[in-house]
Structure formats: structure tokens, C-alpha cells
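If you are new to this repository, start here. Below is one unmodified record pulled from the training split, so you can see the exact layout before writing a loader.
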Amino acid sequence: MESPERVELPAAFEDVDVDVLVQLIADMMERLMSHNDQIPLSPESLTRFHSRTPPGISVLDYLRRIVRFTKAERSCLLITLHYIDQISARMPVFVLSSLTCHRFVIASIAVSSKCLCDTFCSNSVYAKVGGIPLGELNVLEREFLRMIDWQLTCTREVLQEYYINLVRTYSRGLYVINDALSSSGISSDSDMDYDATPSPTASPVSEAHAPSQKAPPRAGTGSPANVRREPSTILIDTATLAPEAPQPPTLEQNMAFAAFRQQHAIDQNMIDQNMDAG
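And here is the target side for that same chain:
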């Protein structure tokens, strides 16, 4: 079977078609979710971003909806990946999963648009586009800012690094970036471990700021099945951040976890009844 013809993309993320960028980001998030969904849920890992069941809209369609109705900038889309890494480093219990991704994305776009753009939508618009009540988005926005410690910006080079990594690791292997500084260029490779550590020359963090603590095990295509799965992120360039000390679950988390398990039991019972009826 012949491999699909590669599509050449602009070298700079500012010039790439927005829908292509959305496809790249959604592809990365889907792989993160596929890995992180296998991590058992615990009371202390529950956050404001958890829903009881996965939303009925795919991440790709959700991102496209956000772009269509809010005209989200490329930088706001890309920096969502940076936020995931930042928060995962600060709060190791947080994982991007099918239960957290959609709420995290809409909160991230709302916050980053206000921080990075001259014009942006009101929270009522973001809430309507995201499919959640306005009051809930306001709560998510405050929680997001707390989790990220108001560190909402990064350099253009960091965003460019994420863009290059998205193209290089795109699962369908359709895209290539012709790097003017390299004869080989940069291309998608579906056989490559999607979370491979960036080379020192490409990393947005200099060697002087190398990780001082061991990074968590990463999800790879060749990971043994018996290895304990840990939360996976995208680019671990956040070693200068001190992670928060683990905290026991709060009363609110325990109550939410109990409600989650109850809802899961109800859903499973309905599935079993439908199977028996069939």
C-alpha cells in the first residue's frame, strides 16, 4: 500500500491554515486522552474540569466549533498545549482525559484570548460556544488561573516548538515542514513515539535549565502492557516549576467522586439492560 502524499506546511505556525493546526492539536489531544483514560480515577484527582461522562462531540469538532464562532487565534490554540504541560507539572494529579479535555479547552481559549489578543469574546459567548452555563465557565476560569498560577504567556519560540512537534508526530503522517536550515526538513511520522523528548537543540528550554527532577514515565507505542501508566503530557519543558505537594481529597472531591461512581453504575446498568433486551 502506497503511503499518502505529504502536504508541505509553512515553516512558521503563524502562516499555517487554522484548520490544519486544529487537526494537529486535536490529534495530539486524542492520543493523550487515549493514554490518560487508562489511569484509574481517584477522589483526589477530581477537578472542576471533570464531567461525569465524556461529551458527545469529538475534540476535533469541538475545536472547529470554537474557531468558527470565536475566531480564536493560532497562538491561543497552540498555547493550550503549553498550558497542559505547565499545569501537569504543577499539579501531577491533573490529567487531560476524555472527562476533562473539553472544559479545559474552552477555559484555556477564553483565558488566553484575553491575555494575548486585542479583541476577544465575552464569557457569555465562550460559554454558549462551549456548551456550558456561564456560571460554570466563570468558575472554570478562576480555577484555571489558580492552577496555572497566572503564568499565561510564553515565548514565540516555545509555540513554534509545539508546532514542529505536532507536525513531526501527527499520527496520519500527512504533513511536512521544509526547514530552510535543514536539508532533511521536518515531517510527520506515524511510527514515531509521539511524546519523544525533543532534542537539546530544539528544546525551548536551554541546557542551563535542565530538569532537576525525574520526569514521569511517558506513553509510547512500545510501552509494555504491565508498566504502570502515568499521566502523559506533550513537551516536558517545565522543570523549573515546583509541583504542588499531594493533598488528601477534600470533602467536595469525595462527594463528587461518589456521585461520579453512582452515575457510572447507573449508565452501566442501562447498557446491561439494553444488551439483555437485544
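Two things worth knowing about this chain: Residues 44 and 174 are 40 Å apart (CA to CA). The radius of gyration is 19 Å.
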